[in-house]
Write a structure and sequence with these properties.
5 helices; elongated; mainly alpha
Length: 134
Amino acid sequence: MENKANDFLKNEALKIENRMFWGRILSSSMGYLIITLWLNSIRATASLWFVWPLIIIQFTLYFSIFISSYQRSKVFGLNKNLALVIFIILAVLGRVNNWEVIIIPILVIIMLTFSAKNRKVSEKVQTILSKNNS
């Protein structure tokens, strides 16, 4: 009986973590896309006091895509140092010659696919489940 309850809690935790990741990465990606398109249309005519805050928001959204992907990849079991190097390289390459047009959609699709297939919960949830079990 206790094992069934633990499995149920684990499945619910997986669903919650998965939905939260989907929300984070999709909202960051859509926000980045909207800000980028808006900036491209107004950059030549808008004043600097208006453009620079939008550029800061754009970079924040850009890096939040990679940061949330890095955090989620640690849950999958990817080595922390390897994941850090991979996501830093992708973030830098994305800023070269508009490669973000290719890198971000591919990254989002891959991360969402891995997230959907993931059966591991984060360390924080694992700690809670193990405390519940004892």
